[in-house]
Amino acid sequence: MQGYLNLAKLVLSQGRHRVSSVQGVGNVVYSGHELRFRPAVEFPLVTTKSLKVSWKAIVAELLWFLSGSDDTKELHKNNVHLWDAWATKKICDQYGLPEGKLGRIYGPQWRTWRGVNGKIVDQISNVIEEIKTRPDSKRMMVTSWNPAEVDDVFIAPCHGIFKFVVAEGVIDLCMMQRSADLPIGVPFNIASYSLLLLMVSQVTGLTPGTFSHYLTDIHVYDDQIDLLREQILREPRTLPRVALNPAVKNIFDFKLDDFTLENYDPYPSIKYPVGV
């Protein structure tokens, strides 16, 4: 994943500094960049820091999104606590939510988008059906960004505006990310949407092609910079492969143990501070 490291170098060398942020820490920001991956050939899980421990969380989070849930207790069933810091009682009280709930972010927007006249739209089911029945369509798109509801949650969706493109039996996925925490969030997002492409290709009977990742506000917090410089010095290793249970034919039937990470040999992990 030399492209990821090249982006890190670009941000640190050409980015501009913002003195503060909602997280209370300054950051270096660079705007506009594309990364491209072929997940079926080489699965883009970064090797310059270990995500072995995080692999289960990456899969569980994606399945959680696809289920339509916003309840962190569902993640806890798999001992995944990625979202706990944003679902405390104090934060939930501010937004009139039960403790542990995040409100209408990824899962609810993907599966129960609130349309006009009370219409509920299941964007994931719709896009799968469109891929199967009208593969030449240019409307195979899902969005988690709902302007009417982004102020009703503590953390607005950072990613999740994505589109599938099908031609000659090959399916590609393009995703636009509005806010990209380069050291922590972006490696998760790359792996998650690469996995989504493999899943959708399997259930639609298409060949997985390219995942194109468009990042807009790409940032590194001040307290992450030295650690990222350390990571940049590491030579990328051979990327792993991911195998899916071939028996699964419905996007909503995938389980945690339907995914196998093969031949992953990363460097030791790097403990980056997380902004809340």
UniProtKB/TrEMBL annotation:
GO molecular function, one term: thymidylate synthase activity
EC class of the enzyme, as a word: transferase
Alphabetical UniProt keywords: Cytoplasm, Methyltransferase, Nucleotide biosynthesis, Transferase
UniProt keyword Cytoplasm present: yes
Reaction catalysed by this enzyme: dUMP + (6R)-5,10-methylene-5,6,7,8-tetrahydrofolate = 7,8-dihydrofolate + dTMP
Pathway, per record: Pyrimidine metabolism; dTTP biosynthesis
Subcellular location: Cytoplasm
Classification via PANTHER family: THYMIDYLATE SYNTHASE 1 (PTHR11548:SF1)
NCBIfam families: thym_sym
Subunit structure: Homodimer.
Name of the protein described by the UniProt record: Thymidylate synthase
Organism of this sequence: Candidatus Yanofskybacteria bacterium RIFCSPHIGHO2_01_FULL_41_21
Lineage: Bacteria, Candidatus Yanofskyibacteriota
